[in-house]
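Usage example:
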Amino acid sequence: MRPFEYFRPSSLKEASELLVRYGDGGHLLNGGTDLIVRMRDGLTLPSAVIDLKGIEQLSRIREDEESVYIGATVNLNQVGRHETIGKSFPYLAEAALSVGSKQVRNRATCIGNLCNASPLADTATPLMALDAVLEVFGPEGEREIPIRDFFVFVRKTSLKPGEIVKGVRVTKTAGQGVFTKLARRKEVDLSMVCMTLLKAEDGWRLSYGAVAPTPVRLPKTEALLNQGAALEEVLSCAVSEVKPIDDVRASREYRLEMVKVMLKRGLEQIEKGGAVS
Amino acid sequence: MSKLTVSFILNGEEVEHETLPNRTLLKMLREDFDMTGAKEGCGAGECGACTVIMNGQAVNACLVLAPEAEGSIIETIEGLSDGTHLDPLQQAFIDNAALQCGYCTPGMIMTAKALLDENPTPTYEEIKEGISGNLCRCTGYKKIVQAIQSVADQNRVGHGND
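Running the assembly step on the lines above writes:
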């Protein structure tokens, strides 16, 4: 690993100032399960690593009557096993527990999963379907970014220099949801395609991962579902709204087919009431 | 790059140690403390050969930076026996011949330890799921699951439940 300075600030202000001071060389560390591998492989070469785990306020899941808030350093097992998340958003809990191994999930964070901006981030599709909001701290103060505006491209987010995601907030929504992850093996694998389908009070919501440069919502398909369109029409619309590529895990053609299969099965599952509300 | 002092509890002993930041907890344990039980297999969180217990949770020591150990409680395979008596899990791995080359064993046992600490009486399925982050290329898992199962069975009798 190339040399770097390690910092463990105790406040967001301090962390943000360090980020600004080191510019492109500054890198935030949450769980580290992605960053450390990238540093070892020489893909990310920070001159400063800024560990957020010293900032106490980021380490909690908070909830009130309307929403649940996941802090930046909360790990994926904590998300997956949280009582309210399990009850209100079981598909989010399932997505969190589908990442890596138990050891990885004891370190990896939900916010880290989002900030990597991988097209196949498993926790991104449930949070997209839930219209989650990222709470951000930066040199110019605090702001909120709707998750739909957060992912810009592969490994690129709409964060500005010095900005830090404090956490992600989801509004409690009545409805049924399904998370599906298609991978070559059951554990410790990356998604070939992942999907969240949610039947909320105000209509259908559908999002996919690993079928475009960022996780995506499928608004046209959602509209067809809301109109009660025929299944065939819905499925071909879904395929028209994604742009998968060929890569080591799956071909474009296979992914397109799976987009249909996963949606069809998701609809069946929700119809049967198999998915929890 | 400046050296940092890291204070943590390693197998029950308080340690204060100077290290460069650009190395993993695994490297520090192996090279500075001569605790070579945890192994580097993949170095990327896929194989689990480097598993240690950090603050009660199984983690991949290859995915933790040395300075991140600050203030934590670390348990490794070296701390399991008291020097005379093996931990029931270690004994069970021997009794069930749950190893061949032994490379995955320390990580496998530490994962199993964290699992049993959390749930002393896991089912067969829970054990299989619990060790899914640990790869073994020799034995084929059956004996490993059996070994862990035998300790879970002892716990079940001990607890007088089920």
